[in-house]
Amino acid sequence: MPNNTPVYPKELSWLSFNERVLQEVEDESVPIIERVRFLGIFSNNLDEFFRVRVADVRRLATFAKGAKRKEHFAELLASINEKVLRLQRRSFAAYTKVLADLDKQHIHLVNESQLSDRQRTFVEDYFHREVLPELEPFFIDDRDTMPLLNEASIYFAIYLQLEDGSERFAAMEIPTETLPRFVVIPPREGKQEKVYIVLDNIIRACLVEVFRYVLPIDKAQAYMFKISRDAELELGEQITQNIVDRVAKSLKKRKQAEPVRMAYDAQMPEVLLSLVKKKLKMGRYDSFTPGGRYHNSKDFMGFPADSARHRYRPLNPLATMPENESVFNLLRTRDQLYYYPYHDFRGITNLLISAALDPQVKEIRINLYRVAKNSRVVAALINAVRNNKKVIAVVELQARFDELANIHWSNELRDAGVNVIYGVPGLKVHCKLISILRKEDGEDRFYSHLGTGNFNESTARVYCDFSLLTSDQELGRDVYNVFEFIQYTHLRPEYQHIAVSPYTNRPALLNAIDREIAAAETGKRAELFFKCNNLVDSEVVERLYRASAAGVQVRIIVRSMCSLLCETPGLSENIRVISLVDKFLEHARVYIFHNGGDEQVWMSSADLMTRNLDHRVEVTFPITNAEHRRMVKKIMELQWSDNEKARVLDAEQSNTRIAQNTDKGCRAQDAIYRYLKRRGSGSG
């Protein structure tokens, strides 16, 4: 593994990605409610960034051996904090502008000082009836320790001035788990408008009431803060039946993990801020992010505006299967390739529903990484058991932030009679496979799914992912053998057509890149065209630099992190990287190789990250149908041609939008839908 490969720090690259999300908040051509939603996504992303990536750097800084390594990580943390503060300032300015633009559309988000008499009466009644019974303040000035704070919550640090001139300090959770964050209040007299107030400001309007019968209060002021904790799970390597118990215990420890970040109202008095910091016992490597009076802007993802004209027009997904045709008859005739959310995800749920009922189906195997809250996928698997099918479900309990949900689903499935497998020791199972075994004419026949995204009906409406459904028997045997490896880890199956992490994905990818390098070095045409969420593996980055030096033309579409130093003389002259942020989340992984004119199109569950190539069970598979290859290439070219939502990733990752050098704009996500619609329903 090359250790001296020049790279852009992945943590700073991730912040550049979140800046692209923030650009959508700032873009006035985006419908106003969608800008509010992107503001929530930006905030939610930043929370997760601190819980995962900053927490990781913080651990490295704490336990690094040697002054140079400690200094390196300390400098990285400083750079992270500097960039976060810049983004926070921009997000506050964007938030202010969004409020002003909401006002222009007669949608008002007011604070406690802007209430009319009629509105104040409503707020005070709502406070006493709904809010006050949920509040549990606690004093913090005379306590030895702060009570355990929930990182999913927001809190008030409260300054109290008593009638005798003395001061007290308190804190209080804002009960957003039991009450809505946004409350509709009456409009002003004679106005046609929609008016909202956040729960925080309802409490602020009535703050003295919280302590009225406890202390003689002259003045009360509240300042919001929240914390982010280290999200790392501490698990042993042994994957046994008690993995459920160990994940559950580890999740409890996560709730007690050390805070790594405190975001707070910059107007909080220094005496109160110092007290809160002291009580939280935060250290030298922790982050403190001053901001405005509102935090947990992630709640804006669910802003309850009901006007369709202020949102993107809903997509009408394309039908995936002809009416009244057996899915198995269809797949025997031709493979199907779907691209969500443009195609209807019911193509997958209908496959499983049909398999559950079909008397010829004997066995269903599936990987579950993240599933929907009311999962039709899980319901179909349970129904298959009722219909005497053998069902094996690989449930990944370590899917970050979905651990509790997956514990729930694993219990539901196990109680229904599904054979639940919890994974592979030391590896996350991240592949997206279904294997259906059907008895036809006295012989076993495979029907298989290979994909880039999860079996989740909810995210399939907004995540762009591919699904290949096939009756190819050699590919079906490969898929079946992956499940055999997961179930019996001592096995090392030979795969004919797929590459599987942690054993063959890396060498397959590097060998394919090397073929392009060899072609370029002999003067032949050589091209790589990749799409992924993250490109941070140093060996892959180094090989791409080598390809550039040999003259290979490299194009990459990356959604999130990119450690490759783009557009750098002597290093990456022949590499161009763009990123797309639009109404749908780009989630697919596609790797295209020119291969001397015999173009290879691969899809994968794996990003170009060390964890995906070496520490997970991932599957990369070929698209062999010529029409499907043309479809994928067309989609990739449309994305590459985007001049409305694409950003160029230069050496500084400054997120410059692609200049429109033509009168004709191209917005890839709209163009892809039109293209697929012209092709007709179904993707055979």
UniProtKB/TrEMBL annotation:
Cofactor: Mg(2+)
One GO term (biological process): polyphosphate biosynthetic process
SUPFAM superfamilies referenced in this protein's UniProt entry, alphabetically: Phospholipase D/nuclease, PHP14-like, PPK N-terminal domain-like
Alphabetical UniProt keywords: ATP-binding, Kinase, Magnesium, Metal-binding, Nucleotide-binding, Phosphoprotein, Transferase
Top EC category: transferase
Stated family: Belongs to the polyphosphate kinase 1 (PPK1) family.
Protein name in the entry: Polyphosphate kinase
Gene: ppk
